[in-house]
Each structure stands twice: as structure tokens, then as C-alpha cells.
Amino acid sequence: MKTNSVTLTDNRNGKQYEYEIMEGTRGPSVVDFRTFFPDTGMFTYDPGYTSTASCSSTITFIDGSKGELRYRGIPIETLATEHSYLETCYLLLNEHLPGKEELLDFDLELRHRAYIHEGLRTLFNAFPDNAHPMATLSATVTALASFHKEHLTLDNEADFHTMASRILAKIPTIAAFSYRHSLGIPFIQPNIELSFTENFLTMMRAYPGGKMKLTANGHSEIKEVEVRALDTIFTLHADHEQNASTTVVRGVASTGAHPYVAIASGISALWGRAHGGANESVIAQLEMIGSVDRVEEFIARAKDPNDDFRLMGFGHRVYKNFDPRAKILKTLQDELKEELDLDSHLMEIAGRIEEIALSDEYFISRNLYPNIDFYTGIILTALQIPKNMFTPIFVIGRTVGWITQWIEFKKDPTSKIARPRQLYVGK
């Protein structure tokens, strides 16, 4: 018998099967069940993959019981408060934080790659003016694969780097164009004089032909504090282990599809209300509640087993203590309340919900703590970003995680096409 193994006994016939226990550097051990079906003639059954490790990875670590999140071993608290989003991108792609010259080169490369092919721009005209930006974004990223067919076969590190930096640089441009097309207003081209995050805000707000920024509250320029707030949100969204959209990206990668098609599939998966679309739903719900006086009414509805109403922005599949990203955003929200001109009315409603939920046994016993979606909406609203752009913001931040996961999968010689099996219960 192996030292680190589990033995399963089939009580129907007394047969025993032994499987190796694999140890990671951190987190739960896993049982290697790769030969379970040929050994036993049975499948394991795990709907939703609640107890299944689909891969090994060196990218992101989460300890849900401790509320811990690390990229390449570095705590998210350190990255979000001491490093920029581009530094975080470099870390994920290269496994170490950049030096001064490395960051400068990376920054300049992304600035120059932010432009999209003129032929791709005409695709936006095929969508109705009221198309949701996520639909346009997903379709356009799929089309981007046809403009860069050479990435279908990648042979060396330089090719991987070019492919990754290209999609990372172009996603904000495509997202901003999708937004402006939904309003029927002219596109604003990228500006290589601006940083990654400021450039995106500029493409969202600026008037054509000038530097004046189009803002709802009369600001004539983008504030440094606005760039810092959005940059932090991008960092907090950069990667999150094997979540639903990342699993989709890896699954599509396993078929040999173009990397940008895999990214487009991740965008579509992220759009769901149970995933990235939740941040849009949080603000919509706060607006629906309308006033602090009605908060307890909706809390009672959330606790009523016969009512299908549920509070958006609470609880998480992995975090059972608190969401560390939410704590960072809560602190940022409080720090920037005056500087960002946050909506005090929505903050008052959200604050009352948070106060009740954090002290109510119903929520505590069910680990229903505020998650990242609960706080992002209020900050994004202060940045004059409309609700239908909340999830595209998520996409911009998460693209680096998706493409890093795609690269890791493609470099793994043990990778196979994703092919789960089923428990057949039909006729």
C-alpha cells in the first residue's frame, strides 16, 4: 500500500482500489482519480465540480476559510495597495513583478497595441444601437481571431507574449467602442500618451477631436483618484482561480480553438447574473429598494423561504469567511467617498443592508458576507460608468487571468480535451 493514498472498497463485491493523494504547496490535498473509470467501470459524481480539482496551477491561490487570495504567491492586499494593474498583469504573465525597465517596456507595448484593425471597426455597425456592450464585446473578440490567425499555432515564448499582450491591450478599446456604439456616438481612438486605465476612461468619456472629457458632473478632465480607483478594481478582478468563466476558457483551449475564441467564450460565461453580471444586478437592486426605510422589508423577504427574492452581492461559492477583495473595496470606498463624489443615497441604502447582514444570525450562519460585487457598483457609478458597462469592466480586469490560464493549459504536456461524463437517468 502506498504511503499517501486512499483505499476505496466496493461493498458490492469486496474489491478494493487504491488512489494516490497528491499534495500541493498550499491548500487541500487531492485524490488522483484519473484511472478511476478504467479501474472500476464507474464515474465519480460531482455536479458543479464542488469537490473536483480540474487542473494543477501555479497562478492563483484561494483559501476560502481564511479569506485569502494570492497571485503568484503575493497577497491581493499587497498588489491592490502597492502595485498597479499593469504590474499585476506582468506578474501573472511572467511569474515575477517587473523591474522599472521591464514595466516601461510592457507599458509602451500595450499602448501601441491598443489600436484595432480598421476592418474590425466596421463590425460594430452590424449591431443595433441598443445592443448590450457585453454582446458586442464577445462577438468582436471572436472576430478578432480572424485578424490574427497566426496565433492559432504558437511555437515559442515570444509568440505567447505577443498574443497575450495584443488581446490585453485591445480589450479596453473594444469595450469602449462597444459602449459608444450602444449610444450611437463616435469612437475615440486610443491615445499612446495615456496610461492603460486613463486611456480606457478617456475612450469612454472624451469628445471627438478634443481633450475635453464628457462627464455627467461637469468635470473637464479625468482625476488621478478616478484612475487609481478603477486601476484597483482591475487588479482585484485580474484572476480568481478555476471559476466558471476560467473553466470555460480552459475547456475551449482544450479543443485547440484560437486563444481569442477561448477569451470570447469566457466573456459570454462572465455575463451571467450568477457570475460577473452580479455587479450590475447589485446597483439595480439598490435602486429598486429606493430608500433606507425599505431595507428591512427586503431583508425579511431575503430570509423568507417562500419568497424567491435574494440579496445580490452577498455570499460566495469559495469564500466562507469574507471576500478579501470586498474588504479592500470597502476601505477604498470609504477613503474616496468625498473625492469620487459617491452617490450618498445608494451608499446609505447599501450601508444599512451591510449593517444588518453582518449582525444577523441568518446571514452569519450561512456565510452570507458582502462580496466584491456589493462594492464595485457604487464606485463605478461615481466614475460615470453606466450599469451595462459594469461587466465589461470586469472583462478588462479578468482578461489577463484568462490568457494566463490559457497559456498554462497549452504548456502543460498532460492536458487533455475536457470531456466530463454523466449519470444517465433517462429512458
List keywords for this structure.
6% strand; Rubrerythrin, domain 2; Cytochrome p450-Terp, domain 2; Citrate Synthase, domain 1; three-stranded antiparallel sheet; 18 helices; 427 residues; 3 domains; mainly alpha
- Helical fraction equals 40-55%
CATH class of the largest domain: Mainly Alpha
> CATH homologous superfamily name of the largest domain?
Citrate Synthase, domain 1
Largest sheet: 3 strands, antiparallel
Number of strands: 6
Report the order of strands and helices.
Answer: EEEHEEEHHHHHHHHHHHHHHHHH
State the strand order across the main sheet. Answer: 1-2-3
Helix count, per DSSP? 18
Keywords: Transferase, Tricarboxylic acid cycle
InterPro entries: Citrate_synth-like_lrg_a-sub, Citrate_synth-like_sm_a-sub, Citrate_synthase, Citrate_synthase_AS, Citrate_synthase_bac-typ, Citrate_synthase_sf, Citrate_synthase_typ-I
Family: Belongs to the citrate synthase family.
Organism: Sulfurovum riftiae
